[in-house]
Amino acid sequence: MACSSTQQDSLGEMPVIAEKVTLPTGDLIVCDLAKATDTLDVPLSMLTEELQIVPLDNRDEALVGGWVRTTVSDNYILVSNNRQVPYKLFGRDGKFICTVGSFGQGPNEYQLTYAEQLDEAHNRIYIMSWNAEKILVFDLKGNPQPYIPLNTRVPKGKFRVNTADSTVIVTKLPFEGSAEMVWVQDMHGNRKQSIAPGHLMAPRDFSNEVMDARNTSAYDVMFLIIVPEAKQDSLYHYNWEKNRLEPRFTTLFTGEKMPWHGYTELPHHFMGDVSFPVQVSETSFQGSAPAYYIVDKTTLKGNFMRLKNDFLHISAWPSFSNGYYIANMEPMTLKEQLEEALKEENLDESVQARIKACLSSLDENGNNVILLAKLKN
Length: 377
What we know:
Blueprint: E1 2-3, E2 18-23, E3 26-32, E4 39-43, H1 44-47, E5 48-55, E6 70-72, E7 76-79, E8 87-91, E9 96-100, E10 102-103, E11 109-110, E12 113-119, E13 124-129, E14 131-138, E15 144-155, E16 158-162, E17 167-171, E18 182-186, E19 191-195, E20 209-211, E21 220-224, E22 234-239, E23 244-252, E24 260-265, E25 269-275, E26 277-279, E27 285-287, E28 291-296, E29 302-309, E30 314-315, E31 320-321, E32 324-329, H2 331-342, H3 349-361, E33 369-375
Parallel strand pairs: 3-23, 4-29, 10-11
Antiparallel strand pairs: 1-5, 2-3, 5-33, 6-7, 7-8, 8-9, 12-13, 13-14, 14-15, 16-17, 17-18, 18-19, 20-21, 21-22, 22-23, 24-25, 25-28, 26-27, 28-29, 29-30, 31-32, 32-33
Protein name: 6-bladed beta-propeller
Pfam family, one: DUF5128
Organism: Parabacteroides faecalis
């Protein structure tokens, strides 16, 4: 099912909350959250093309379970493993194609994974575990291929394989004592170049994260350092030719304590989130409910934001990766949200019809439903 909508740029009347600073490595956009004056409802249609609603195949072998990462390409949907459920590959119509690898510790098996890449053009799926020594490789029928050995062990790593020129860019947590945090290697594990952690070096703690979104052609990466305390940092582009990290977006924060924060790059905007640690036990913390904000790359206008899926009149988690908005939802959760949306007064007739059509297609006991929309270029 596909839904279309037309929406003007809602940032037009917003204040300028950022400035562009020219550095030797290129332009850096610096956001000043003190200039954000309000919280804006940002319609999904402002950022994306039409919404597609894809119920996944209901066969037992196709079931994906609860929270999972989802990767979309032109013709495929790849759903990551959930606990002991292995990766599942579907067509864009939701039809189950195959299971990819299996849960375990043997050859071509994995347990907790942290990153994956769906390379439709070269008939490849790449999978990296959370503390990896290799990248597992499969074709689009789920058949295992020779794995890619990593130059060093990778805790919580992100990567991008360039299958055409047989190179791999890898990023890992910048632990103390590490000689590298970003490097380029070949398919046999031979390192070609690398970048040392420098000022980003952090204690050996898996609470920190490496983040990327892949919504543009750049190799974007952010290191979310929250232990021992949050650090002021930037979203970077890795410049392969000059072997350097080039800062592209950062935010100024006021207050005694730096909040936990993350940045996401879209084709025409940067998005950020802020939260604060909440102690949930003697030894563990979790983030408070995040506040999100958005900045236009050209006008530098923006504000705090709530993302609204205006195609279906429901709220939306700002989840953007590989050039798509993606929501992987259990059918009952989606059903409850749609039924609540129908209660709204003055609901547009076309939206109402869309919601009813979606509700009629839902199987409450079925597999998950994928909501996806391609980002506007």
